[in-house]
């Protein structure tokens, strides 16, 4: 696992031939845990680098999320500057607590994911994944609700 600075992230975006940037919700969200699991599985087919972005201080990530994917590169963004820069959306009541979120939550719960403390992160953040090739965005997935994750099969190369 490597904790990257925002400057190192910018360099990786510019220099890596293929990069997947995954913006997580908060550390206690069962959807965050599910997204880490599905991203890790997808990374086996993705021939590029994966970097997780989270809103918690690095020490909160280390104790809560790092055990879910010990080798993942990540960037701590407690001020959500990267979230703003990459247009990560915030949801409302329907996106967080609507029927689609409940159905996704049941599926995540049945897969063994549970809810924990969110820490200082914004609990209204929607999941977002952005794929880059040679510094250019080639695909984006902006979640329509809290449990809306991308179809990673579309991104396999």
Report on this structure.
- 34% of the residues lie in helices and 20% in strands.
- It is built from six helices and six strands.
- The chain has a six-stranded mixed β-sheet.
- It starts with a strand and ends in a 15-residue tail after the last strand.
- It has helices spanning 6-15, 30-43, 58-64, 81-85, 93-97, 99-110; strands spanning 3-4, 18-23, 49-54, 73-76, 128-133, 136-142.
- The chain has 157 residues and is α/β, with parallel strands linked by helices.
- The mean pLDDT is 85.
- It has a single domain (3-155), classed as Glutaredoxin (3-Layer(aba) Sandwich).
In a nutshell, what does this entry contain?
With 157 residues, the chain is of the alpha/beta class.
List the helices and strands and how they pair.
Elements: E1 3-4, H1 6-15, E2 18-23, H2 30-43, E3 49-54, H3 58-64, E4 73-76, H4 81-85, H5 93-97, H6 99-110, E5 128-133, E6 136-142
Parallel strand pairs: 1-4, 2-3, 3-4
Antiparallel strand pairs: 2-5, 5-6
